[in-house]
Write a structure and sequence with these properties.
With 296 residues, the protein is α+β, with helices and mostly antiparallel strands. It has 8 helices and 12 strands.
Length: 296
């Protein structure tokens, strides 16, 4: 059911002690509440995360998302992944605050983010989870075909894409669309006592598997992670197999598209993150120049 969230006293400070009231849109429904413990404001998107306790003393997480369409999209992605038995937080409530801010409530997952964990089995496990996601949530809702990528490449006047264009065109033509998380990196994975759990489905989309792998590789390079982690991830994803030659070339196209797109975005926005985007682009170009992916 759609739920109305009535929120009292949301502050920028953290920790915080406030009551978060919920009520179904039916005015006759009973009201429930959560005791908010902590608030975190997210960069870039304006979202706010509230950590709270429900009346049964169970911990929950409420994500307030200013844009209703984006909130509905994330709720849909999280729910689909949950129904497909992908390890994700249990989705509980989708609703809207008294001031019309949408919110998503899910069960809190105990554990630490995967960042900094050096156990190779963790990346094997993550690769297997992403494979399960792709294998069990295929979709025919097209988002980006090859012409989309080529139009972007032409607008950016980036000749470096040319080396990988043929492999990319063939990959897009011959590979079915799947459900992709859309922003896969170790900060979206919690290492819980029961295993790894994927979080944050705000950017999920229908795309091809290598777009997901390219995003994970980009974040590996961006954060200076040991590239062996990516190799372990691929081993888990491919079930001890490796990428073939054409897949590696298409992967490089995706990697270039992601890094160049980010650079152009922050350049147009004159955003404070622009210098980091330039550094990330340099890391990607060096990765390709050194043919690192062919050495894995």
């Amino acid at each position: 059911n759609t739920i109305g969230l009535f929120v009292k006293g949301l502050y920028n400070s953290t920790p915080m002690k406030d009551i978060l009231y919920f009520r179904q849109l039916d005015p006759k429904s009973e009201e429930t509440y959560f005791q908010v413990q902590r608030s975190v404001d997210m960069p870039f998107n304006g979202n706010r995360i509230l950590f709270a306790i429900d009346p049964n003393q169970q911990e929950v997480v409420t994500k307030l998302i200013p844009d209703l369409d984006k909130a509905n999209k994330e709720w849909t992605g999280l729910s689909l992944a949950y129904l497909a038995k992908v390890p994700v937080p249990t989705p509980l409530i989708f609703g809207m605050t008294e001031n019309k801010t949408p919110g998503i409530v899910s069960r809190k997952i105990e554990g630490q983010l995967l960042y900094g964990n050096k156990d190779p089995e963790m990346r094997h496990a993550l690769g297997a989870i992403v494979n399960h996601l792709h294998s069990n949530l295929q979709t025919d809702q097209a988002t980006h075909d090859y012409s989309f990528y080529e139009e972007a490449r032409a607008n950016w006047n980036a000749e470096i894409f040319n080396e990988f264009s043929w492999a990319m065109s063939q990959y897009c033509q011959n590979t079915p669309l799947v459900f992709c998380h859309g922003d896969l990196h170790d900060g979206q994975v919690i290492n819980s006592p029961n295993g790894l759990v994927l979080i944050d489905f705000e950017k999920w989309q229908s795309d091809r598997p290598l777009s997901e792998l390219g995003m994970y590789l980009f974040h590996c390079l961006r954060t200076g992670m040991n590239i062996q982690n990516f190799k372990n991830f691929i081993t888990g994803y491919k079930n001890k197999d490796s990428l073939d030659e054409s897949e590696k070339q298409a992967l490089m196209y995706y990697l270039l598209h992601i890094s160049t797109g980010a650079l152009i975005h922050f350049l147009e926005e004159n955003n404070w993150y622009l210098e980091y985007a330039k550094q990330n682009q340099e890391k990607v170009l060096n990765f390709i120049k050194n043919e690192t992916v062919w050495k894995l």
